[in-house]
């Protein structure tokens, strides 16, 4: 990636703080995501990675700090403006979070109901659904229910749903958790392909070192609610810091 | 149980009542705001109405049969069998029909809503809806509460009619009263003062079933255990609330129609 210092980030977090019942989870976290970049945030379970990503999309309210996405401060946005901003962001949930009372087709059509016209997507709903499924290699599952899919297939359909509005930013919350190594590799490969196809900026929350190695342009290590260290995968994996090494030694 | 525990329970009870009142307030704000989710509302009305119809019909029919069979010997003792259609119709339409059918629906519909929304909450489906730019409160909660509020009076009306039909069968078999005579007496006995308060309170029953089921499910936590708790609490809380509403409705009807 070129020198990032002079480029405006597409997504920025400044001094983010969040605590639950007096227990500080995020303690002044900072992050900048640039256009076309894959940024990996790594941390132990319970280190606040998922809290951070939920604050980013307004699912949780931060105690303090600034979150700017596409030059908009999400804390001051009204409901309608926030909903519109969210259409520029795809979110892949840890457990896929497919609507289990709907078919794969209905799952993919759901985000299009309200926002297709606003986003000026000219293609028909059917062709958008087909295209998104084709990109994840699951066209044949269109009329199946989520319960009829394997864990890996559910994750891919969830990814297709996250992509259906052609977002500029994709947030991945533990994309490979709960999957076997082969399926994990398939999902990682898919993420790389999607990044090339859609030219998205991706923020990936994970504790999967393989995933980070393959996909990251840059990494941030989240320890005790702050950016403990950041750099490329090589820089972090070669660090002598024992806390950093703890992530890479296996 | 020491005084601290009792005080803690009292505080958490009022905190829950306050939260539920806030939830109800949010419903009244969102219900009048666009966009309106008509398709989902129709789907919910169909699901709740259609899928509860058989249960309500069977319950109503047995209610009419049993009520008439149990009352007959007592009325016969006083030579008052001819009062049977009036007594049964007023009892069923005013009180027994709405309350029994609402309780059945609290179990059938309320627990279903609690479990469905609870499961959606713990599997992050509600969060997924939120980040896709859809207001889940409008899509999931408003539609369900409106659907129960509209469907319950209909179900109660159908249940009452079937209960009266069940009663008429017993009267026909045991007392040799024709259906025509039975229903003539029923319509002679029933007045607007019986039907209107019962219909109004059935809207409130429907609202209570939807509100408590949605509240418990929407704020469900603690994983699968929480889903079970939400479903269970939806039935328990709704049942209690139904009796409170019934008491208030009877009291108010007594003032207006006394």
Polypeptide structure, described:
The complex is a heterodimer of chains A (250) and B (258). Chain A is an alpha/beta fold. Chain A is 35% helix and 25% strand. Chain A is globular, with a radius of gyration of 18 Å. The mean pLDDT of chain A is 88. Chain B has one domain (34-257). Chain B has helices at 3-30, 38-77, 84-122, 125-131, 136-174, 179-189, 192-218, 223-257. The A-B interface holds A 54, 57-59, 79, 83-84, 86-87, 89, 91, 93-95, 97-101, 110-111, 113-115, 161, 165 and B 35, 116, 119-120, 123-125, 127-135.
CATH class call of chain A: Alpha Beta
State mean pLDDT of chain A (0 to 100 scale): 88
* Greatest interface and its participating residue counts: A-B, 26 and 16 residues
Overall 3D geometry of chain B? elongated
What is the straight-line distance between the termini of chain B? 44 Å
Please summarize the sheet with the most strands of chain B: none
Reconstruct the topology from this structure.
The complex is a heterodimer of chains A (250) and B (258).
Chain A: E1 11-20, E2 23-33, E3 38-43, H1 49-56, E4 64-69, E5 72-73, H2 79-86, E6 89-92, H3 104-109, H4 112-115, H5 125-135, H6 151-163, E7 169-173, H7 181-198, E8 201-206, H8 209-215, E9 218-223, E10 226-231, H9 233-237, H10 242-248
Parallel strand pairs in A: 3-8, 3-9, 6-7, 7-8
Antiparallel strand pairs in A: 1-2, 1-4, 4-5, 9-10
Helix pairs in contact in A: 5-6
Chain B: H1 3-30, H2 38-77, H3 84-122, H4 125-131, H5 136-174, H6 179-189, H7 192-218, H8 223-257
Helix pairs in contact in B: 2-3, 2-5, 3-5, 3-6, 3-7, 3-8, 5-7, 7-8
Feature tags:
heterodimer, A: alpha/beta, Rossmann fold, 25% strand, globular, B: 258 residues
What's the quick description here?
Chain A is of the alpha/beta class.
């Amino acid at each position: 990636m070129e020198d990032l210092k002079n480029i405006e980030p597409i997504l920025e977090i400044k001094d983010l703080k969040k605590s639950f019942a007096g227990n500080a989870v995020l303690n002044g976290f900072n992050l900048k995501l640039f256009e076309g970049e894959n940024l990996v945030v790594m941390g132990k379970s319970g280190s606040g990675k998922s809290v951070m990503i939920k604050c980013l999309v307004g699912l949780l309210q931060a105690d303090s700090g600034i979150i700017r996405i596409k030059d908009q401060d999400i804390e001051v946005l009204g409901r309608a403006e926030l909903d519109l901003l969210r259409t520029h962001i795809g979110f892949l949930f840890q457990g896929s979070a497919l609507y289990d009372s709907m078919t794969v087709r209905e799952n993919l059509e759901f985000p299009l109901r309200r926002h297709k016209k606003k986003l000026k997507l000219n293609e028909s709903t059917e062709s958008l659904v087909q295209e998104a499924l084709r990109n994840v290699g699951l066209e044949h599952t269109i009329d199946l229910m989520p319960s009829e899919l394997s864990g890996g297939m559910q994750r891919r359909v969830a990814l297709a749903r996250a992509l259906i509005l052609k977002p500029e930013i994709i947030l991945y919350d533990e994309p490979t958790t709960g999957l076997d190594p082969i399926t994990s590799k398939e999902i990682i490969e898919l993420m790389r392909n999607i990044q090339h196809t859609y030219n998205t900026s991706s923020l990936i929350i994970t504790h999967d070192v393989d995933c980070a190695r393959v996909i990251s342009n840059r990494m941030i290590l989240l320890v005790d609610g702050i950016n403990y260290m950041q750099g490329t995968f090589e820089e972090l994996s070669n660090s002598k810091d024992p806390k950093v090494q703890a992530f890479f030694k296996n | 149980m020491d005084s601290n525990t009792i005080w803690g329970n009292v505080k958490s009870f009022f905190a829950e009542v306050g939260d539920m009142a806030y939830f109800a307030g949010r419903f009244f704000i969102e219900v009048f705001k666009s966009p309106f989710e008509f398709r989902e509302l129709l789907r919910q009305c169909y699901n709740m109405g259609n899928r509860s119809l058989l249960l309500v019909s069977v319950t109503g029919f047995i209610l009419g049969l049993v009520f008439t069979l149990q009352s007959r010997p007592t009325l016969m003792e006083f030579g008052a069998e001819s009062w049977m259609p009036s007594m049964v119709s007023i009892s069923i339409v005013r009180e027994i029909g709405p309350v029994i059918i609402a309780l059945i629906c609290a179990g059938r519909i309320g627990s279903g809503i609690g479990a469905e929304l609870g499961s959606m909450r713990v599997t992050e489906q509600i969060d997924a809806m939120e980040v896709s730019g859809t207001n889940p409160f409008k899509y999931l909660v408003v539609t369900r509460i409106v659907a129960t509020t509209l469907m319950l009076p209909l179900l109660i009306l159908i249940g009452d009619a079937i209960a009266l039909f069940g009663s008429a069968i017993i009267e026909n078999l045991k007392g040799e009263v024709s259906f025509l005579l039975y229903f003539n007496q029923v319509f002679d006995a029933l007045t607007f003062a019986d039907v209107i308060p019962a219909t109004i309170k059935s809207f409130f029953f429907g609202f209570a079933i939807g509100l408590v089921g949605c509240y418990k499910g929407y704020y469900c936590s603690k994983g699968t255990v929480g889903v079970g708790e939400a479903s269970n609490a939806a039935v328990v809380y709704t049942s209690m609330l139904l009796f409170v509403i019934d008491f208030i409705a009877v009291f108010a009807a007594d003032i207006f129609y006394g």
